[in-house]
């Protein structure tokens, strides 16, 4: 009996976890909710709280399976025929202007509509009093008493008989509101619709709900979606007007040209939407978030202020601050302002102000939005002046000022969506800082400039440094480690972008999960054509690199073993056969007489390692330069197509300025450098 009871409890828990539980169990497993409004409508099923995996499994296993885009409606109709109660239930019919209680007497599965009649007593709520009983009856007659299923909210029933009906309608309602696009049906049927469209859009929806997507990117996605829908409607209108007219008139030719232009615009917007929907390519599509942030400029009085943020102020600290920071060589009177936290100090800054942050651990709930040329300096070592982010938010530091300097600080980020520091416009200098990241690290947007010197960055779940097209990024003597990728260079082959200017000198990039440096760019048609050959080539290069690394590891172990062997068993060396040459003499029994041999072997390994690092730097500079040259060729081709045989030298010289020297790449999971094609 105990075993049977445990099995029954196990079956019950499994079915209750599923939104497709057994109908044989008495009672509902769904919650209830009270409708908003002044009219006392009956309670309805609470179904809009479903988790990601519940919707994912419903669409994948029960509703859409492996259907094509053109088969979606048929698959949904077949699903509804299996789970929907055909009649005998009530629901609230909701539109933008009214809500009314109706009873369902039938279902038109092929049209995804319910056959309804008004319930008694008549319950209706609207924005005005014009929707009377007679008016609603007339409206239903015009609709032949058929309304869309997704406009119905099923009335709550404790018996559990209508659980499946409520859930099925919720899945259909969510699908047509959040997943389906009007142009999906015209997409090619070569791929599984669920894999190509449903899954990425569903993931994006829940990423937005759980605040894993920057608010600026969400706004961009919504705007792009609205634009695409509007242009697609115009395209359909033009196409229908052409198809209904068989004449070969000038007006029709004009309409065809207009239709082609609209089609190109729609396709361009659709590609941008797909980039955002794809979690791997989402951040390839950049957006300008703080372009409207206005700088304050100089104070009306023209004075500049030093803002002091003390954790605790003592007489000795005040004396040292006065000596080191508050009394420059001119010793003129300078206005001082004291603040309780760094964010308040930055918000009080005008052009040319300076913020000095005393040693302490500061917790900040907010975003540092710096639009003026100001300087933030920690008074002490970075580990002594810590600014830690509290609360959820898009990012930590947003820089749009013409000349911003941040030094001697440690920044710690938690519960973030964007990177720890974003340079949107102007120039930002980061010197002698420590950055403990959460998502991505530093982002250098288009037309922005970053100078990062003598700093340490780690912990990013994305790239440590993201370099956008048309930006200037200088990395000198930094450590970038324990990130997803070390440095990521965004695609700049698009005709609207300029090549970035990149300088990387004497950086230590190590222990990153992926590559030390990675370039993201689209695959060109010629590259797609020769994909198989390139894959073979890339695989061969990877294998060579692997074998080279294995050989170097073997060489190190061999040198250590030889050294230890000579120390412990010097006599064994005399038994080796004599060979000609100076190098062979070191391998014979005369090692004690030639102590420089071991040093020479270690020096050989060091030279091999130095040679590899030099090769890595050369490879990065070479590939980035070659990509810039490819962009140059694309510009030339487009100009020639437009009829320009001689191009402006400034336009044609938009090649990437690359200086990659003295960097060390160690223990990166996929290697020193890679290219990600999309």
UniProtKB/TrEMBL annotation:
Subcellular location, record wording: Cytoplasm, Cytoskeleton, Spindle; Midbody
Under Gene3D superfamilies, the record lists: Single-stranded right-handed beta-helix, Pectin lyase-like
Cite a single GO BP annotation.
fibroblast growth factor receptor signaling pathway
InterPro entries per record: Beta_helix, PbH1, Pectin_lyas_fold, Pectin_lyase_fold/virulence, SHCBP-like_N, SHCBP1-like
Which residues does the UniProt record annotate as the domain SHC SH2? 54-282
Please report a single Pfam family linked to this protein.
SHCBP_N
User: Keywords on this record?
Assistant: Acetylation, Cytoplasm, Cytoskeleton, Phosphoprotein, Repeat
Span list, region Disordered = 1-28
All residue ranges annotated as the Right handed beta helix domain in the record: 415-519
Cellular compartments per GO CC:
midbody; spindle
Q: What does this protein do?
A: May play a role in signaling pathways governing cellular proliferation, cell growth and differentiation. May be a component of a novel signaling pathway downstream of Shc. Acts as a positive regulator of FGF signaling in neural progenitor cells.
Its quaternary organisation is:
Interacts directly with isoform p52shc of SHC1 via its SH2 domain. Interacts with TRIM71; leading to enhanced SHCBP1 protein stability. Interacts with both members of the centralspindlin complex, KIF23 and RACGAP1.
Protein name as it appears in the record: SHC SH2 domain-binding protein 1
The protein's organism comes out as Pycnonotus jocosus
Q: What is the lineage of its organism?
A: Eukaryota, Metazoa, Chordata, Craniata, Vertebrata
Q: Which gene encodes it?
A: Shcbp1
